[in-house]
Design brief:
Layout (H helix, E strand, L loop, with lengths): L2 E4 L24 E4 L9 E3 L6 E2 L4 E5 L2 E7 L4 E8 L5 E8 L18 H10 L6 E4 L3 E2 L8 E5 L10 H5 L3 H12 L4 E6 L5 H4 L5 E6 L7 H8 L8 E4 L1 H13 L5 E7 L7 E6 L5 H4 L9 E5 L6 E3 L11 E6 L52 H5 L6 H10 L2 H6 L11 H6 L6 H15 L2
Parallel strand pairs: 1-13, 11-12, 11-14, 12-13, 15-19
Antiparallel strand pairs: 2-8, 3-5, 4-7, 5-6, 7-8, 9-10, 9-14, 15-16, 17-18, 17-19
Helix pairs in contact: 3-6
Amino acid sequence: MTRIIKLRHGLDINLAGKAETVKRSCSGGKVFSLMPCCFEGVKPKVVVKEGDRVKAGDALFVNKDFPEVGFASPVSGRVSMVERGERRKVLGIRVEADEQQEYADFGVKDVSAMDGAAVKAALLEAGLFGYINQLPYAVSTNPQTEPKAIFVSALRDMPLAGDFEFELQGNEKDFQTGLTALSKIAKTYLGIGEKQISQALRQAKDVETVEFRGKCPAGNVGVQVNHISPVNKGEVVWTVEPAAVIFFGRRLNTGRVDLRRTVAVCGSEVKWPAYVDMTVGQQLSTVLDGMTGYGVKVRVIDGNPLTGRVASGDGFLGAHTSEVTVIPEGDDADEMLGWIMPRFGQFSTSRSYFSWLLGKKEYSLDARVKGGERHIIMSGEYDRVLPMDIYGEYLVKAIIAGDIDKMEQLGIYEVSPEDFALAEFVDSSKLELQRIVREGLDMMRKENG
């Protein structure tokens, strides 16, 4: 029987431009880029040179601290550029894709006959192990960690988030293979939502399925870990994005690395919000050209509006991205009388605007912060949208103060930056909470070696 957990806190933000459950075609693109910044905590060491030829599945870079953890090229072709930024930081490795794709052959595996060590070895060999993250620290994990449990959340409930049930269609076999493989390493939990009815989720084998009922961020894997098996000091849990589970299953079932995924192209500035099939590292322009452009200045986001990264039209799809969002930038907005107007078209968590009278209206929000940074207001705002057994405001204050002991006592090992995305949205102090939490996690990771 599926366990049910009900959450009381949270906030659903109803934004205009949600992708319709139809697929549109797009050009595959010629240039792909695998970006190390998508793998938090990894120190990249490039193992290819410009001009080298690679197959799909060959490593483009490895983790300098754990060289056995490589990161596979999404396509075959010629390495055209190792893009670097300040202090020679690796920003991406670009590959000009072949017309006819070649795949490194890692051999088909019978997952039922494998043990945990064999699963780890298969993922390491194919350059896919780095897609597994861990708590504490919310970073890409390494093979030396021994997780007490593995968590997969198939519930995406951030604003404009892609529907994983739609992405799962046609990939059910690979998804189940990936779940079975993870269960060989440690006890695996699959988090689903109340409205998800797919048999591949409801009747998944070799895992414990847990249904979460409540508002966003019920789908955050950190929230689910907090309610099922909280992380204490010295413990580690692994977290895996559901699309990565499909990647793992494809590798075992076909012997190839296939990083294709279904992505939602959404937002109020998208003419035809829909789903497209893309490959990790694909140029965003291949899907945005012709689907956007209403004559306003826009912000392109690699991800959802709350946790995604600002990108550009000629940017590339991130390794963990399930949606590409386009919203108005808003820096050219000219509102008569500013905040004093009743604002029926603006979303508010309080009743400061009259928009609360309009029920479940869809809002076309822009990227403005609408206020300046100021001292923390201890008003309980974070607690209303943070369904975790932690004191969010006190934890943020401890991070800003650099108080290691307080951070430990207040549960920093259990959180990731995305858990504070909604708190950042409603914060009257206009603090960059996700950045602050990331800095706190990096501080604890450095402190603990």
